[in-house]
Specification:
166 residues; alpha+beta; NADH Oxidase; six-stranded antiparallel β-sheet
C-alpha cells in the first residue's frame, strides 16, 4: 500500500550526517525510472551527487541554502528534450517516485526548484548538463535530523471532490 509513504512524505530541510548507501540510491533511482512518462519515451536520466564540494557549489548557486549541501545525497533528474514528449511532466512524475521511495526507506527529501536564468546556468555548469537536457529541480536526500510528523486525516478535504461535474 502506498498511502503510508504518502502520509509520511514531508519536506525535510535538516539532515543527519549518516551516509546513504549505493544500494539505497540504486533503489531510489529504480523507483524513479519506473515512473510513467508521456508516450513511454523514458527520456529521464539522473545525476547522483555525493561529493561535498559539488553539493556546496550547488548550494551556493541556489540562493545559498544550507540544507542542499548538508544532505548526503542530491539526485538531479534531467530529461532529454529531443526525446521527451512532455518533459516537465516526466520530471515531476520521476521526482514524485523519488520522494515516495526515499520516504518508504526512512529517508527525507525535498523539492528544491532551480529557477531559470543565472541559477539554472550555474547548475548546468557545475554538473556539466548538456543543453538539450532540461532540469526543473534537485532533490536533496538524507536521514531527517528530526522526522517531521505525518499528514493526518484532518488535512483531508472532501469538499474538494466534485462528482461528475463541478
Amino acid at each position: 500500500m502506498v498511502l503510508p509513504a504518502i502520509l509520511r512524505r514531508r519536506a525535510v530541510r535538516e539532515y543527519r550526517k549518516d551516509p546513504i548507501s549505493s544500494e539505497q540510491i540504486e533503489e531510489i533511482i529504480k523507483a524513479a525510472q519506473f515512473a510513467p512518462t508521456a508516450r513511454n519515451r523514458r527520456a529521464v536520466e539522473f545525476i547522483v551527487v555525493t561529493d561535498r564540494e559539488t553539493r556546496t557549489a550547488l548550494s551556493n548557486a541556489l540562493l545559498p541554502q544550507e540544507f542542499v549541501k548538508e544532505a548526503p545525497v542530491i539526485i538531479v533528474p534531467v530529461v532529454n528534450t529531443k526525446a521527451a514528449s512532455k518533459p516537465v511532466i516526466d520530471l515531476a512524475l520521476a521526482s514524485q517516485n523519488i520522494f515516495l521511495q526515499a520516504t518508504s526507506m526512512g529517508l527525507g527529501s525535498i523539492w528544491k526548484h532551480v529557477h531559470e536564468g543565472e541559477e539554472l546556468e550555474k547548475v548546468r555548469a557545475i554538473l556539466g548538463i548538456p543543453e538539450n537536457f532540461l532540469l526543473t529541480n534537485i532533490i536533496p536526500i538524507g536521514y531527517a535530523e528530526v522526522p517531521p510528523p505525518p499528514h493526518t486525516d484532518a488535512e483531508y478535504d472532501a469538499k474538494k471532490i466534485h462528482r461528475e461535474k463541478w
